[in-house]
Every structure is written in C-alpha cells, then in structure tokens.
Amino acid sequence: MEPQIIKSVETMQETAASLRQMGHTIGFVPTMGYLHQGHLRLVEVAKENCSKVVVSIFVNPTQFGPKEDFNRYPRDPEGDIIKLKEKDVDIVFMPEADDMYPEGFQTVISVKELTKGLCGASRPGHFDGVATVVCKLFNIVKPHIAVFGQKDYQQLTVISRMVRDLNMDVEIVGVPTVRESDGLAMSSRNSYLHPEERESARSLYGAILMAQRMVEKGERDVSYIIKELEGFILSHRHTRIDYVKIVDPDDLEELSEIKGDSLLAMAVYVGSTRLIDNSILKID
Ligand code: PAF
User: Fold this and answer.
1) Other CB atoms closer than 10 Å to residue 171's CB: what's the count?
2) How far is the CA of 259 from the centre of ligand 1 (A)?
3) Does 134 sit in the ligand 1 pocket, CB within 6 Å?
4) Which of the residues 27, 65, 165, 266 has an alpha carbon 20 to 30 A from that of 200?
5) Residue 152, pLDDT score
6) pLDDT at 205
7) Is the pLDDT of residue 28 over 80?
8) Burial label, 282 (beta-carbon count in 10 A; 0-12, 13-18, 19+)
9) Is 236 tagged catalytic?
10) Which band of pLDDT confidence, cut at 50, 70 and 90, is reported for residue 1?
11) From 24, 36, 39, 144, active-site residue
12) First-to-final CA distance of the chain
C-alpha cells in the first residue's frame, strides 16, 4: 500500500493522536531523506516493534553550520517514497521548514556535556539543532519507539540523554551500522565521493579493524593506537583528519588507557566530504 504522505505539522499531530486512541503503537524513524539500506534497516526494526511506522524526511536547517552542506545535501523525495512503500511504511511525514520553525521560534534544547567533544567540538551548535528538532518531531509524531543508527553514536547518546533528562515517554532503540561490502558505513553523504575518494574512504573501516586487532593483541595505550590509526588513514589519498578519538562509550570522555570496552570514534574528510564512523573496541 502507498504510504500516507503528511506535510502539515497539525495533520501529523492529529493523525498520531488518533492512532494512539485506536490502540496502535507508533514506531518512528526520523531521517533527512536520500534513504539507503541503513535507513531501511531502521524501518525494519520499527516495524518489528510497532503496529504503525512513521518515517520523517526533513533536512533540518538548524543542525547545519553556516559553511556546511545544507544547500547541497542530497535530496530525492520521490525515490525515498518508493523505497518506503516497498517497506510497507504507513506514514511519511515531510514537513516544510516554515511549519517546523515559524516566525518567532526561539527555543533550543542543549544537552551540555555529551556534546562538548567529538563532532560537537568540530560542529558547534549541531547537536542543539539535532536535539531540538528531534524533540519537536517526538511531540508531533508521538512515537512509542524511535529508532536511530549507531553510526551516529554521539547523536544516539545525546538523544537518549535528552529523553532521560526530560522524562520523555519514548523508548530509544539503537541499531548497528549497516556497511557496504568493503566496510564503508552507509551514509547519504557517500554520494558526494568521486571514485578515487571512494577508494580512500575505505580507510575509516580499515582503521576500525586495525584498532580492534591492536586491542586484541593487548595494546592499551590510547595515544599510541591513535597515532597508528592516523598514520594509516593519512596514507590514503585525499584524506584529512578531523578527529580520531577513543572515549568512554557512556559519557564520551576521552581515555588515555583502554581498561574496558571503549568507543573508537572518528571524523575524516575525504576530499571535501566529512565522513564519520565508530566502533566499540572490546577487550577479551
Ligand atoms: O540522523 C539524522 O538524519 C538527523 O540528524 C535527524 C536525527 C533526522 C535529525 O534531523
């Protein structure tokens, strides 16, 4: 069946309220569109857990910095709707920016500590934009469950903390990263990569495997591991490191020594495309 397309915030709110009244459970997948297998996996998880699935497509302007790629962010609403129809999605919510942020809008949600490092350090204001729009989307879509990819690990952590801190009545579910056959994490931004850059983009997953091997062999010195990973990434053409960090997976604080399961997180420019990836480094 064709999904119902809803563009108005008010209609989405009314529809969500009546679905709840009828006893449905609402599973929600917020996206910025240009959907790939990673998004579709989130949809599957929402479907497994709820009787109705809502997917939002909204390229949220407030989470992009002034020099970032908001204007050229890839968009394909028709293609997205076909993919969502194949996955039996019930509702696609596609709001307009001025319905989401009407004249006079001035409220910001800021999750303070968790957004200081990693992508928060290189993209000031990004997570305020994400937390605020996700909070708004939760109020509009009224989901029982909301599903996010672990590829955006910091985003998942920030949203989980917002939900906990603000007593929001929604369960956050994180889903493992879906990868291309050579390990590259799926991302809408991969479409920016030229063929040579696409080759170099493999270095992110290569660095993850390298770190895992080092930890398995007993290496615990974080600055040594990072130096090796950076050298490996930079040995690939077109790469420039934004950050490579090993942090505590709960509070995202930087570690100097690996004592338990730790998060390797990185952001690397390949050409002008900023790619992120992460993995939990497990000890024993
Ligand atoms: O991960 C994304 O696509 C976006 O950050 C989100 C969660 C849809 C908010 O705009």
Assistant:
1) 14
2) 32
3) yes
4) 65
5) 98
6) 98
7) yes
8) exposed
9) no
10) confident
11) 39
12) 47
